[in-house]
Input
Amino acid sequence: MKPDKDSARGLAQVEGYLLWNAELDSARRQARRFTDELPWLTTAQRDDVERVYTAERIEAGRETLTRIAGRALELRDEYTARYDRLRARCVAASVLFACAAAGACAVLTLLSR
Output
């Protein structure tokens, strides 16, 4: 692979890592805030509720990211196909125009003799 592509992929991986860790921290903070609203819980109960809440939140985040990534791939494939069709049409139109111009020049040359 080219160094630019390697760098871009590495940066995307670092970005993904940082975003996922931010999501994990957010899930933990929300779990803590949730259990703070339940002052009657024992320490063990609080820990269990936070663990379950965090696990549920992480799983929901993972499902969302998986769905978004799948949709992004679908869109990339769709737009790549559209771009390929558009490029083929433009090339065909350019070739047709060039042939028409060459034909017109040939006709004018023949008529001017």
Summary: Residues 43-112 form the longest helix (70 residues).
